[in-house]
Amino acid sequence: MKKVTKLLLFFILIALVGCGEKPKETTIIETEETRENLNEEKNTEKVSYPVVVEGANGEEVKIEQEPLRVVSVGPNITELIYSLGAQEKLVGRTEYCDYPEEVLSVDTIGTLYTPDIEKILSLEPDLVIASTLFLEESKKQLEDMGISVLVFHEETKLEGVYQIITTLGTVLNREKRSLEIVEDMQKRIAAVTEKVQQMSPVSIYYVVSYGEGGDFTAGGDTFIHQILTAAGGKNVAEESKGWSYSVEQLLEDDPDVILVSERDYAGFIELAPYSELRAVKEGRVYTIDENLLNRQCDRNVDAIEEIAKMLYPELFSKEES
What we know:
This protein is of the alpha/beta class. It contains 14 helices and 13 strands. The termini are far apart. Mean pLDDT is 88; it is low at 15-36 and 38-44.
């Protein structure tokens, strides 16, 4: 039962999220020219409201004026609000929003899937920012009360996080800061890519869940797959779709490196047949803060850097000495 609860929580968290000339109402749409447009706009100081941004399923959401009281229904959204320096606007968060630590003093509005609508209303927000798991019923209730709701869709590519950041930057009047964050992420990822491209890829497997509840990992069509490959890893589940895997396939893959949360480390390496994997026997099972991978936010670049150091320690040992 505990395994099922943990897996359910993972899938809840993983679903959180997600230009050209600007008219009076700014529409932000992801295109192949995103990076060029970001560079062209990076000197923008203030957002001119109203703005129109794209939410989940292509829905256009009009923000009439700068939001001053915001409720976040997503840990990644909460993290980005702080990264953007807009934390003074945050009046509500979910029980899972636990980073940075200071957010723990902000009022909670329940869980991701079943937020307390009455509690949200009592906080008198002018904007609620949620993920695709936010029920349409809850969304309608809030909109019927005159509260704007912006729902982000789940990104499947690493570049998608840039769009989440810049959209939030526009909505919260932190556009310049959002462009700085994206630029920093791009530079740091490029630095890792440049280092690891000279090396032979190391096969890697990320443990989402294991054991009686089934084996789950990041397939080739997932956002986390993009993080693993950006770090120079060769995801053994690349040909798989979604999250479900099989222990038989894992044993056949027998990856060079296995990545697991600190919570699952001891149980995984001691349980047969996982204990027979080469990475377990050779001590190449590494732990990582799973939130760096599961939450689509600026800390994804931290995950890329950490994983690259695990895969190719010889490339980074001189920097740390």
